[in-house]
Specification:
single chain; alpha/beta; nine-stranded mixed β-sheet; six-stranded antiparallel barrel; elongated
């Protein structure tokens, strides 16, 4: 009898000790098939779309296909370690990446893990990589420029903070060169840059990082790298990870610029995943939601209103075309999502016109609203004159002898404008320098300079202005307007230089 009472007491004691203990229920499944970075899992009946899954050996995955009897997941890591029968746990979380100032100056993979050998990233905050874009009530019109330092872009196809401007062109037409120049030009401009490399050669990405370090641009830049040797799932999440990092700065009231290099390879990675997950293929074997893939990413770029901090996230996606075909599926999708495009033409590039921008096909839908007043004052007719020159030049090849004087003068002016808009790589120009030379060429001060001497004339002119009249560039940079007083000083300086260069 005593033994029975002792048993009852021990049970009661045990119940008291365990009172209030939490019980956790884990959703568990088993791998039934694995290969090519894809796992099919039986169980996980409660798994949600985009939920993070935990595989053995610390490997994670994302649930993308929720089917009646199994879950299709992409594996973010080495899938060769995973085998049939392995246990998989649902985490109840979506995939997140570290964000904040701690990432500035670092090279990370799409999971926010360092790749630069500079130690761990001690970020205190994380964000989900997927998020709904800010609605129209939280935005305000784009009105502040992202100065790229490239004369042809800042004068004719301006990019504003909060805009989405596509750079499109064939291989080896200078797309990445433009974005690297743009990042280098942001020194001292209070703009945090994020460069997302998707499916690029490792050597090309290493070269880009070395260039940014050489010009001191890594001090305000984050590089998110998912190169060609990385699995397709990492290439798929890379732009969303970079965007989450940029949104953190935007919501702090800061300005950020994100470059996606390039979204064609991103679409290829998603197509690969979709076909392996046995989703029905559509046009060009892409899945039906390929438009949504890029629209939900690019719509997250915004200029927030002052009520929400006034920060901005500017997106510059890059698309590589095949044989100049901008009417292909992915290019037309992204053109329709963005606020304009800069089209780089192989023929212009091969003719030595670099950056090889086709002015007729390039457009910025924000336009002059995102230009400094000084630039608007000198570049007003530049785009029109250049487009007319390109048409006249093609026509003039058939019979230049029969052209009237006005047409010949326009052709000569156009040739000099074309020369002025040429710019070597890694030499971004300040607003003052750009305004000075564009004022000179559009007002006819270079009409008597031989075409083959225009580039040396410009180089010497900038040196002359720096040594003799540095206050003019300084005033244009500060006032951002070509006042009557500054214009008169600039005219006098140009005439002084012309007089000295002739003598």
């Amino acid at each position: 009898m005593a033994t029975r009472e002792q048993d009852i007491v021990s049970v009661i004691k045990e119940q008291i000790e365990r009172f209030g203990a939490s019980i956790s229920v884990t959703n568990v499944g088993a791998v039934i098939e694995v290969g090519d970075g894809i796992a099919r899992i039986h169980g996980l009946s409660e798994a949600a779309y985009n939920e993070l899954l935990q595989f053995p050996y610390g490997i994670t995955g994302i649930a993308l296909n929720l089917e009646e009897d199994n879950v299709g997941a992409v594996i973010l890591g080495d899938c060769s370690k995973i085998k049939e029968g392995d246990e998989v746990r649902a985490t109840g979380k979506v995939i997140e990446v570290p964000v904040g100032d701690e990432l500035i100056g670092r090279v990370v993979n799409p999971l926010g893990q360092p790749l630069d050998g500079k130690g761990a990233i001690r970020a205190t905050k994380t964000r989900p990589i997927e998020r709904v874009a800010p609605d129209v009530t939280k935005r305000e019109p784009v009105n502040t420029p992202v100065m790229t330092g490239i004369k042809a872009i800042d004068s004719m196809i301006p990019i504003g903070r909060g805009q989405r401007e596509l750079i499109i062109g064939d291989r080896f037409t200078g797309k990445s060169a433009i974005v690297l120049d743009t990042i280098i030009a942001q020194k001292g401009q209070n703009l945090i840059c994020i460069y997302v490399a998707i499916g690029q050669k490792t050597s090309k990405v290493a070269q880009a990082i070395a260039t940014l370090e050489k010009y001191g641009a890594m001090e305000y830049t984050i590089v998110v790298e998912a190169d060609a040797s990385d699995p397709a799932p990492l290439q798929y999440i890379a732009p969303y990870s970079g965007c989450a990092m940029g949104e953190e700065f935007m919501e702090q009231g800061k300005d950020a610029l994100i470059i996606y290099d390039d979204l064609y390879k991103h679409a290829w990675a998603y197509r690969q995943l979709s076909l392996l997950l046995r989703r029905p293929p559509g046009r060009e074997a892409y899945p039906g939601d390929i438009f949504y893939l890029h629209s939900r990413l690019l719509e997250r770029a915004a200029k927030l209103s002052q009520k929400y901090g006034g920060g901005s996230l500017t997106a510059i996606p890059i698309i590589e075309t095949q044989l100049g075909d901008i009417s292909a599926y992915i290019p037309t999708n992204v053109i329709s999502i963005t606020d304009g495009q800069i089209y780089l033409e192989p023929d212009l590039f091969n003719a030595g016109i670099r950056p090889a921008i086709n002015v007729g096909l390039s457009v910025s839908r924000v336009g002059g609203a995102a230009q400094r007043k000084a630039m608007r004052q000198v570049a007003g007719r530049l785009r029109l004159e250049l487009a007319q020159f390109r048409e006249l030049e093609a026509f003039a090849k058939f019979g230049s002898e029969e052209l009237d004087k006005a047409t010949k003068d326009q052709l000569e002016r156009g040739r000099r404008i074309t020369e002025v808009l040429k710019q070597p790589q890694y030499t971004p120009m300040s607003l003052g320098k750009q305004v000075s030379i564009l004022y000179a060429v559009t007002n006819g001060y270079l009409d008597d300079v031989p075409v083959d001497r225009v580039i040396p004339w410009e180089e010497n002119f900038h040196r002359f202005m720096e040594t003799r009249h540095p206050e003019i560039e300084k005033r244009i940079n500060q006032e951002m307007e070509l006042t009557k007083e500054i214009e008169e000083a600039l005219k006098a300086a140009i005439l002084e230089y012309k007089k000295e260069s002739v003598s």
